[in-house]
Amino acid sequence: MIGSLFGRGMGLLAWLGGIGLAAGPADGAAAGPFVRPPYAGAYEPQGVDERGLWMDLDEFERDLGQSPGVVRDPGLNAFVRQVLCDTVGADRCGALRCYIVADSRFNAFMAPNGMTVIYTGLLARLHSQAELAGVLGHEFAHFERRHSLAGALRQRSAGNWSAWISLLGVLTAVRTGAVRQELQIGLIAFTRGQEGEADALAARLVEGSRFRLAMAAVWRRAIEEDDALRREKGLRRVRHDITSLADDHPADGQRMAMFAAEELRVGSRGLDGGAEYAAATEPELPLLFAALVRGRDFAVADYVLRSRGEALGWSGALLTLRGDLFRLRGHPRDLVTAEELFGQAIAAGRAPPEAWRGLGLVQLRRGNAAGKAALASYLTLAPSAADAPLIRNLLDSGP
Amino acid sequence: MGTWWITGLAVAALGAAPLAAQESVGIRADFSAADLQGEAIVLIRPTVWVGAQSTGGTPEPNAEWTDTARALLAAELQQREALLGRKLVAEPEVTGADGTLLAGYRALFATVARAAMTYQFFRGNRLPTHRHAPFAWTLGPGTQRIAALTGARYALFVDLRDAYGSTGRKLFQIAAAGLVGLSITSGLHRGFAGLVDLRSGDLVWLRADQAMGGDVRTAEGMRRRVGQLLEQMPQAGAASVPPTREGSP
Lengths: 399, 249
What we know:
The structure holds two protein chains of two kinds. By secondary structure, chain A is mostly helical. Chain A has helices at about 45-65, 75-90, 90-95, 120-125, 130-145, 145-170, 175-205, 215-235, 250-265, 275-280, 285-295, 300-310, 315-330, 330-350, 355-365, 370-380, 390-395; strands at about 70, 95-100, 110, 115-120. Chain A has a four-stranded mixed sheet with strand order 1-2-4-3, with helices on both faces. The longest helix of chain A is centred in the middle third of the chain and has 31 residues, at about 175-205. The radius of gyration of chain A is 24 Å and the shape is globular. By secondary structure, chain B is α/β, with parallel strands linked by helices. Chain B has a single domain, classed as Double Stranded RNA Binding Domain (2-Layer Sandwich).
């Protein structure tokens, strides 16, 4: 699930996926203001299975801590950690270690040993501290309820039954595929239940924090993003309000509806923190969007960029990223759009040097010699950029 | 017909024992025991995983067994210092750029070693142009940075993975063999070890075994396991070097 970065074969890790959030109202939703139960202090894993699970995770975290795929920017790390602590309480967050990992997907997870992983693709898609609080609250719920252990035990049990049933099937010449599939579906439904539980607890955690509960919008955008992708690829659109047997999370639409109902109940009190979120993520925008912009899903990248621009404003850096998205696809019509976007980025002020690089490259490709001046500006602004020798070469050899 | 189909499915699902038609050791042609003499070897933090195998084959990590095996492995390797050459130094505890460097090379070694096991040791997998190729794999000269960091000339990597068949798995193995004649493996005991020349980055020796002996949870068993891992390594002070099995058509 976490790709090549986490390359060791650990079946149990498969249990850590996902920002699952739940359908149905939270338990005791109308029972008055939420108060966090007292924190019991550092937890030590108990028994063979839990200790084993933690062992795998501890080893994994050793490598993750040294991985070049982890974003080290102190400002961004401190910001994410502060939102986490404000959501789950300072006592609880003390035991958690946060790692921001360069990955374009919309995901985060919190392992039972306290290792918290947040993908850059998640930070690219969120728009406020309140939204980040909702996601981190959900992951924390998995952690506090020790869902990974229950999931691993359930998986082992299903695997064991499956083995005996297969053998019985061979003996009796009866096909057992359907029964074993049932076991698998039961296993998936079990995780889906855990996700629902985590969603409910997340809503309560955010409600008890200084942040506004604002998760419905996150799931609305997830649906819109998926629709945009399906339109682009010509795929059949799916209903987002029902779960299929193979869904290990509630459907996005169900989660949106559940949170919308909760938000109605809680009201709009609490901090949204959109401006704070914009300020904290702005310096790392190229990193947060890099994989999306260079990926193959144009519609997804464009949707995510536009939704951020519309919510938090179009900064020079964001306009430059959108310009790069069009430049890299590179149809003649894209080059026109890209040139406009780079121009807007430069006009917006405080544009990154990449705006001049993009403008110059696009202009040259369109046969406009003014591109040379833009590239020269790029080299002046970023003389030691990784691609500076390449650009210099282009300037020297060009007509 | 129907039974065949189901049997085939069951074999695929349960992981019947694979055929082990593999070589298990590779030595670079220009490497000999004399090269080790008097040189320090840094022991890169070994990868050790010990657990059980459930009835259905799910690996179940066991922290206590793993901790025991890790300690026994370290003790056993220290005892063999003299055999290995001169000085065996532990991987230093480093953070920041140095930590990333070592973690990167641990991962690179694992990848290169697995490629060598798959595409060199298993003859059927060799590329047509490399049918008779000598054992020549390298991590690249960037390993000189590890040499500078540790003061060692060579790096020793060890990777052990053991899953002991649970009672359920053993019962299932017997049932499968007795009732339908299916061969199901119970337990998994894999290991590999490699020696890298940090000046060139060359993998000078690699040993891999998919079915190793010795119970790594006991000192006696670990002695046997380490013995098996190192048995074909050119030993310091040895009169002659075991001939390489690679490179000859």
